[in-house]
Amino acid sequence: MTDSTLHPTATTPGARDVEALRQSSDAPHDEGKEISAVDQSTGSSHTQDDELTYSNAPKLPLHRLFWYFFYNFGLFAWGGPVAQIAMIKQQIVIKEKWITLARFQRVFAVYQILPGPEAAELCMFFGCLSAGRIGGIVAGLGFILPGFILMLAASYLYTLAGLENKYFNASFRALQPIVSAMMFKATHKIADHSVIKHSTKKVDPFLVIAAICTAINSALRLNIFISLGLYGVIYMFIARRLWIPAAILFILQYVGYAIYAVFRGVPSPVSLALGIAETPSLINLFVLGLVAGSLSFGGAYTAIPFVQVEAVLKGGWLPQRVFIDCIAIGNVLPAPLVIFATFVGFQGGYTDGGLGKAFAGAVVITLGMFFPCFLFTIAGHSLLEKLVHNKFLSSFFDGLCGAVIGVIAVITFQILKSSVQGTERDFQAKPVEVAIAKAAQSGIAAVLFTIALAILYKFTNKWATIVLVAAGAVAGQFLFLDELSGH
């Protein structure tokens, strides 16, 4: 793919500025210097409107578009949604400059209020820029397909061996802290620009506060949608210097939470149960995926508790241990984390009618899970573009984008904690010697996390993640197998 294919001649003044920067930036440079160079080269002519309308997306034929997203992102989507979003931003926005950082941040903020995995939605967005709505569908399929195939294979292998297989378990134990390191670095990369004020290009303390308070709200089990919407509105007031309404809203969120906790207790995910999948029939699995996909605002992390309540607690056809395993596998595979639904559908179909129905269940629940994502992103592309450019809502989306960093950070640290110290199931293992051996693995896991994080910051090539995963799987056989098989 040549430079002329990827970067056609731009026509707007803002686009010419960025194109001039592109041609003068062949020498090695870092992201911060690049942003500074844009500011210096554009001066006052490079307005925020230029940044939000600039598009330099190549017009690719559908087969090349599919391969572009399949190869560059689908095969390398390791480390969960945070790492995937950071990878897409680095490749398409920072390196190839399809759009500006300001436009990317606004698009990313808009997708926070849509159901579905943001990484897949971003691929569809860029596909739409390149080849229209059909291009969006093709780009989305290219991103999702590798993970779906791998999860389908993992689901089948799980029914044959399960994670109780000592060899598989040893490799998986080593991979968990490595995946956590990927997510940790990606959180840093995404936060890099989410707390930057576009007009000044400096860190906005109010966006930092929004991220911190959203993290606190997540720890208090305050609904994520309430936090994101609330801080979007609060930042709208702050941007217009309406300090009193902003302060009132900020205080009211905790007053309202305190009143709810006194009369109803701490919010629980069990209240999400609708009873739509009491048995894992194909129609029930499709509806479960459809509803979970419609509720997955902010990605899989909001769909996980809903599926758990329906399948594990309400339906009772999926054991809690198996559900935890499927989330762990979803975190390791190069795929959107919502691909865990494929595993749930496979196990549900297998329980309901054997192997043939298992594959059918995996397909239908996956279709249901991704249907809202494709519907809103592809059918509503023009409307979403208008939202991105809407000046009145711009500060709302900036506040929302800052707040979501708090949610991502909390989830990242939760996964880091479980990947290093192990799960509750590890400490309940019998005999007691096995539980002690598993607890002793925490030190080794912490060292693996530290080494992996150092490697990821030192080597930024996309192959580094593949090498780390392969090396971790092999290292697990030496680091954890003896302890697991010795008892």
UniProtKB/TrEMBL annotation:
The annotated region (Disordered) lies at 1-50
The principal localisation class reads membrane
Ranges annotated as biased composition (Basic and acidic residues): 27-36
Give the InterPro entries listed for this entry: Chr_Tranpt_l_chain, CHR_Transporter, Chromate_transpt
Q: Which Pfam families match?
A: Chromate_transp (PF02417)
**Membrane-related topology note:** Multi-pass membrane protein
Q: Where is the composition biased (Polar residues)?
A: 1-12
The protein's UniProt keywords, in alphabetical order, are: Cell membrane, Membrane, Transmembrane, Transmembrane helix
* Subcellular location per the Swiss-Prot or TrEMBL entry: Cell membrane
**GO cellular component assignments:** plasma membrane
Under the heading NCBIfam families, the entry gives: 2A51
Q: Which family does it belong to?
A: Belongs to the chromate ion transporter (CHR) (TC 2.A.51) family.
Tell me which PANTHER family the record gives.
CHROMATE TRANSPORT PROTEIN-RELATED, CHROMATE TRANSPORTER
Q: What is this protein called?
A: Chromate transporter
